[in-house]
Amino acid sequence: MWISRQMKKSVPTADADLGMTTISGERTGVLTRGEVRALPVYGPGGYIWMPENGDMVLVMKGGPGGEEQCVAGMRQPTAPADMEPGEICLQGRDCSVYLKRDGTVRLQGRIEIEGQLWVNGEPYAPCTCGDGGDT
Q: What is this structure's pTM?
């Protein structure tokens, strides 16, 4: 019995930490209480994100002893001034996709479309009015 009282209690560990990225890319390096490298980056389904060097990120710990870690996200930037609950805004460095409750999709930045473009259920055909075309 006296031995059990003499045993050192385990030090509590955090299940998450804030850290600064030191290596960007799919396998990120993060400085929390020490530098950890080759961390996988996780995000919501369908969302692909690579943190930049210097980003403050959330590092989640798991597994026995917390030795398995991953980058789970970062602090949100300021929301658009007119943003309402239920709306979504994906922001990159110089671009954004803003999905509004009223059905509006606001795109900011250079827009490149690959594949087919349909407008009101019809394939898009550019106007050839000024080129001697009939429409």
A: 0.66
Residue 65 phi/psi, 5-degree rounding, is 80, 0
Strands 16-23, 56-62: pairing kind = antiparallel
Burial of 104 (0-12, 13-18, 19+ CB in 10 A): exposed
3-state secondary structure of 23: strand
Distances (CA, A) of 9 to 4, 38, 79, 91: 10, 31, 44, 45
Task: Assign a CATH topology to domain 16-74.
Answer: OB fold (Dihydrolipoamide Acetyltransferase, E2P) (2.40.50)
Q: Read off the pLDDT of residues 92-108 as tens digits, 9 standing for 90 and up.
A: 889 999 999 999 999 99
